[in-house]
From TrEMBL:
The keyword DNA damage applies. This is DNA replication and repair protein RecF. Coiled coil: none annotated. ATP binds at residues 30-37. HAMAP family: RecF. Pfam families: SMC_N. Residues 2-353 form the RecF/RecN/SMC N-terminal domain. Keywords: ATP-binding, Cytoplasm, DNA damage, DNA repair, DNA replication, DNA-binding, Nucleotide-binding, SOS response. The RecF protein is involved in DNA metabolism; it is required for DNA replication and normal SOS inducibility. RecF binds preferentially to single-stranded, linear DNA. It also seems to bind ATP. Belongs to the RecF family. GO terms for molecular function: ATP binding; single-stranded DNA binding.
């Protein structure tokens, strides 16, 4: 799939621009603060209806404007889809082929995007919430039903926490009975999320470990592990998993009431990345962490292709020049001719010559993009 054209109106520092885009590598070159990342963010918005760098949509609206609009035409293998995201003080609207989609889960997936930005190193170096966010977003784009299950789980979690808070120091009989009912809903929703995440990680690991071994020329083995917050075995089938979670909740009940918090469940689960059997977050060098992040992103591209039957669009925001020649070559060789790619850089010299020769180059200057 590829973005054939895009129009941005009052989005960040863009006034009103329209671009025709080729299904190749597109390099956006420009000095700092010219709008390179803003364009990447707009394409990310098309896929996820969410920015990769802020949760506050109003920051995306051009200063002194009432609304912002992103419109694009995306070519898919046997069809084409028009997408539109409109942001205003009233909220966000998303449209697919001109029809407003009330549920984001019905919109997401119309176009698939993999983004690799410097912050992605936090996937390896950062806290568990970064990895949970990564897993949730990536499963969401290949399986919108997952987003529905996840938000159901989050809704029940909120209710459960509220109930637990009111149960301290002495729970009433009524509260205890309500907790029993909520626990069953909580377990059912949690099991769905855990199983989906576990399955996703296994598939992702298949690709990521192969890619990682190739990049490190056989020196390193990458493993991804689902590391649950409860004493459960994520690989078990649903009823056994539910049983384990039920036992775990019973064991932790007193503590949960004392703290007014749910202490076991997907919201606290972790994904571990091991290189040669050691946690790369704790023991990995900068280079190993960078390679692990790159392997994950490259694996994601393959995983999406295996699900949707087409390669996603790749956004490389300010990372290509950060990769040494060896890692750059691995990435570029894997995508060349197959994946529509957007690369931003302040210095065109940092990108391999052969890539530039075959790429379309745009210059970003003060909210304008000019094809070279
Ligand atoms: N809501 C907004 N309205 C107008 N301009 C904005 C808005 N939000 C950010 N900007 C401007 O957009 C510019 C930043 O653009 P962007 O982040 O795309 O830079 P960049 O070209 O990627 O730079 P760098 O190379 O430093 O990453 C800044 O000048 C910033 O002031």
């Amino acid at each position: 799939m590829y973005v054939k054209n895009i129009r941005l109106k009052q989005y960040r520092n863009y006034g009103d621009i329209a671009l025709q885009i080729e299904n190749t590598v597109n390099v956006i070159v420009g000095e700092n603060a010219q709008g390179k990342t803003n364009l990447m963010e707009a394409i990310h918005m098309l896929a996820f209806a969410k920015s990769h760098r802020t949760s506050k949509d109003k920051e995306l609206i051009g200063w002194n404007h009432e609304f912002a609009r992103i419109e694009a035409s995306v070519e898919r293998e046997h069809r084409h889809v028009d997408l539109e995201v409109i942001l205003s003080a009233k909220g966000k609207k998303v449209k697919k082929n001109g029809i407003e989609q009330k549920k984001l889960s019905e919109y997401i997936g119309a176009c698939n995007v993999v983004m690799f930005a410097p912050e992605d190193l936090n996937l390896v170096k950062g806290g568990p919430n970064m990895r949970r966010r990564f897993i949730d977003m990536e499963i969401g784009q290949i399986s919108p039903v997952y987003l529905h299950d996840l938000s159901k789980y989050q809704r029940i979690l909120k209710q459960r926490n509220q109930l637990l808070k009111g149960m301290f120091p002495v729970p009433s009989r009524e509260q205890e009975l309500t907790l029993e009912v909520i626990d069953e809903q909580y377990i059912e929703a949690a099991v769905k999320v855990i199983q989906r995440r576990y399955g996703f990680l296994q598939q992702l690991e298949g690709w990521a470990s192969e890619i990682h071994t190739r990049i490190t020329q056989g020196r390193e083995q990458l493993e991804l592990q689902y590391d649950p917050s409860a004493n459960i075995h994520a690989e078990m089938e649903a009823s056994a998993l539910a049983e384990q979670l039920r036992a775990e909740l019973a064991r932790r009940r007193e503590n949960e009431i004392r703290r007014g918090l749910s202490l076991a469940g997907p919201h606290r689960d972790e994904m571990k990345l091991l290189v040669n059997e050691r946690d790369v977050q704790t023991y990995g060098s900068q280079g190993q962490q960078r390679t692990a992040a790159l392997s994950l992103k490259m694996a994601e591209i393959e995983l999406i292709r295996s699900y949707v039957g087409e390669y996603p669009i790749l956004l490389l925001d300010d990372v290509l020049s950060e990769l040494d020649q060896h890692r750059q070559s691995h990435l570029l060789d894997a995508i060349q001719g197959k994946v529509q790619t957007f690369v931003t850089t302040t210095s065109i010299e940092s990108i391999k010559h052969e890539t530039i020769e075959r790429a379309t180059v745009f210059t970003a200057r003060q909210g304008q993009l000019e094809k070279q």
